[in-house]
Amino acid sequence: MNGIYYAGLALILAACGAENRTHEIIYTEDQCGPNRYVNQIYNGTEQPSYIPLSDSQIMAIGTFGGCTGTLVNERWVVTAKHCRLDTDKTFCTGTDPKRPNICANVEVLHNHPSRDVTLVKLDRALTDELSITPIPIVTTVVKSDLVGKFGEAAGYGQQEDFESGELLFTREPISQVSDAYVTIDGQGQRGACFGDSGGPLFIMTDSGPAIVGALSNGDSSCLGIDNYARVDKISAWIESYTGPIGLGDDCGGFDDVGRCFDGLSARCENGRLVTSQCEGVCGWDTGDEGFRCLTGEDPCQGVDAFGKCDGNTALWCQDGEFKVRDCGCASDVCREDGSKGGAFCVEDPCQGVSYQGECSGDVARWCENEKVVERDCGNVGETCGFANDEVGYYCVPR
User: Fold this and answer.
1) For 285-330, what is each residue's pLDDT tens digit?
2) I need a surface site. Which of 38, 271, 322, 349 has the fewest CB within 10 A?
3) Which residues make Cβ contacts (< 8 Å) with residue 155, sequence separation at least 6?
4) Could you state, in order of their start, the residue ranges of all structural domains in the chain?
5) Buried (b) or exposed (e) across 91-119, using 16+ Cβ within 10 A?
């Protein structure tokens, strides 16, 4: 971790075949299992693929033009202290994620004395001009059992084509919870980048989607570790300025079918979000035709409609049927992402070469930005070898 302060989401997914490629909807079985519809895999997603947010919640995420922030109520924004904002800055959002053109001026700033978090009060409520639903912070202190679960990050920062200013999302596993940070790992495939500083990391709580951290720093490659300054630890400090921060009455991006999140069932019922922490398992309820807490057997074996990758096998639940596709059988790779959200098989752009790479004699080969990159170590008087877990195979002294 190089301590680079970010101001973008590179959101680089090593999952694309051709750019903007689509697949037919084919649910017939073949020797590898059923295919799953995949709609235009991008190097990042304009809609969240894991935490269901409504359009009005998505508009709560805005840009300061170099940093990202999130409205937690009508006038207060959470962002990063290292952004060094001042009252000459504006916070902008809008209905078009590529044109955040509805702006308010910064009126007051409060920097936390020891955490990389800043609270910004706007000079007016953007909720008066747009249908914005602010997103609350996590107020209950999270624990280390968050490790291994998933979060979803968002930001307006630099993308893989070096453009910025467009809101994008990425779903990544949580790799560490320390006193100061919740850390996610892009595993060489995706990540936050310059311009995403202060941007939110969302998790699913018993009360619905909430912000657990604001982007502080991370890997300079924009494809690795990203550290989000924890807001749960300073929720009392935040609410001393903002007042109590609660969820709105709408269901966000949930429907009546619902979703499962690590034993938590969430669905929309009569216009309100209903969540239940299951004593047993969350799975497909045949009677309700949705994902609920179950007392009996789950026909989808604990997998919901989003699904997951088990090694290189895609697993998902489709209308109460457990689906399995062996991606390796078709020379594809399994990915848990995409504009439709979910686990699916896609063409392997690097044809089996991982981001950690391999050696071919003195030549180091690795997958980067969906291409195989090579470096002849012999030209610099070195040989190819395993450098470390973070770098993988690269040039090392003979």
Assistant:
1) 999 999 999 988 899 998 988 888 998 999 999 889 999 999 989 8
2) 271
3) 6, 8, 9, 61, 68, 167, 168, 192, 193, 195, 196, 199, 215
4) 1-250, 358-396
5) bbbbeebeebebbbebeebbebeebbbbb
